[in-house]
Amino acid sequence: MQKKEISNDIAWLLEHGLITEAEESLRQYCEFFPDDVEGYSLQAGLHLSKGNACDAMLSIRQGLEIDPYHQDLLQNLLFMASAIDNNPAEAVRAYALLYMLGNTMATDVLASSRLPTTGFKVLQGTMEIANQMNTLTAALKRKGISAQAVNYYNSYLGYDSAQDISFSDCRTQEEANLKAKAFAADMLSNYDIFHFHFGTTLTFDHSDLSLLEPLSKKRVMHYWGSDVRRLSVARKHNPYICVKNTDELKMVNDIKKTAIHIQDCIVGDHELYLYVKDYFPRVHILRQAIDLSSYYPKPTQPNPRPLFVHAPTSPEVKGTEYILRAIDTLRQEYDFDFQLIQGMSHNQAKATYQQADLIIDQILIGSYGLLAVEAMAMGKPVVCWISEYMKDKYPGELPLLIANPDTITDVLRNVLNNQDMLPDLGLRGRVYAEQYHDANVVAEKLVSIYKGL
Fold first, then answer.
1. What's the CATH number where 163 sits?
2. Nearest 5°: phi and psi at 158?
3. pLDDT score for 258
4. What is the pLDDT at residue 282?
5. pTM, to two decimals
6. How far apart are CA 404 and CA 411, in angstroms?
7. What is the domain range of residue 367?
8. Quick one: which of 306, 307, 316, 440 could link to 337 by a disulfide (CB 3.0–4.6 Å)?
9. What is the distance between the alpha carbons of residues 85 and 91, in angstroms, rounded to a whole number?
10. 115 within a domain of the structure (yes/no)
11. pLDDT digits (tens, 9 = 90+) for 78-108
C-alpha cells in the first residue's frame, strides 16, 4: 500500500473516532516513514482526538520545522492558535501564510482571532531609496514610536538599514517567493502600520496587499520618482524632462492595483503629485528627510581652483551629458576642478561633497532631489533645474541656482566669475534644510499621516 493510501486510512479512522486503530496504524506509518511531515500532521490529529492539545501543538511545530509551508499543518496551527491556545498573533501568521499560498478557506477560523489595531508599531519596506527608510525610522524611534525598516534590495551605495533581507540563498524564484511570504506572515502578525516604498510590498507578487484590510492594518504607499513619473504627463509642465521608465501602461496598472488595497499615498513634492492624484483618494506631500546631525555645514569660501561635483545615479535622467558638455566648454576659459561621482558608497560620496565648492544636482526633472538636500545641509551651493510649474510649489525662497540644458554653461560661468556669492547661498541652504527637511520635523508630519490612515 502506498504512503498516501495509508495516511488517508489513518485520517478516516480518526474522523470516525476509531482512536485505538488509528494509533496503531500511525505507529506503523511512522516506523516505515520516519520524519515524514504528513506523519506529524496525523500525530497532531491523534493528539487532538485524545484531548492532548499540548502534544498536538508540539507535533505541529515539529512538522513545520521540516516543511514550513505544509498547508494541513498550517491549518491545524491556525485552529489551535484560534480556538485552544488563544494566541491571536500566531493565528494571524498561520492565516496570512495560508492565504498567500492560495488557501483562502481559513477565513472563518480567523474571524474570532483578528489582532486589534490598537498599537502603533510601524514597519517600512521593502526598498531603500536614498536612505529615506532608515532616516524616517530613526526619527520615529526618537519620538518613542516602535518602528522598523526592512530592505530587500541591497545596493553599492551601502545605506544603513535596520534589517536587510537577502534572497541570494534562494535557488529559484519560487524559493524566493516562499521566503518572502513567510517573512510577510511574520510581519503581518507583529506590526500595525505598513509604510511601503517605491511600489514594493512584503511579497514579490503583492499577495500580502489583500490581507491588510481584513487584518485591520493601516497602510500607505510612498512613491519616489521613476516608479510613477510618466513622460506624457511630465512634458506638459517641463520641456526638458527625461524619464527612466517608458512603460506607462504597466506603471499605471501597477498604481491602480496598489490603489485597490491602499487608499493613501505619499510623495515628496507637487511634481510627483501629478502622477498619482487620479488614483488615490488621499495624497500626502512629505518632504525628503535628512538627519542633520550627520551633516556638518562647511560653507564654501572663494577658491582659486574651485571644485564642482556631480553625482548622478541615473546620468541620462539627471542631464549628465549637458553638464559634462558645459564643463568641457568652461575648462577652456577657467581653472577649476570637476569630479563625477559614480560607483561610490554613500559615505564615500558624502566625504567628497564636503570638499566641494559647488554641487550640481539634476537639470532635467524640474525639481530638486536628495543630493540637493544633502548639499544644502552641508552649507554647499547647489545647481538644479526647477521648472516654472514647480517654482511656486516650494515653501519659502529656494536657495538654489537654477539651470537647465540651455543655461547650464552660463550659470556655471557666472559662478566662476562671482564666487563671492557662494558662501551666503550655502548658508541659506543650510537654514532651508533645517526648516523643511530636518528628519525630526518631517517625522512629525509623518506621524500625523499615520494617525489619519
1. 3.40.50.2000
2. 65, 35
3. 98
4. 98
5. 0.91
6. 9
7. 294-437
8. 307
9. 9
10. no
11. 888 877 767 888 888 999 999 999 887 666 5
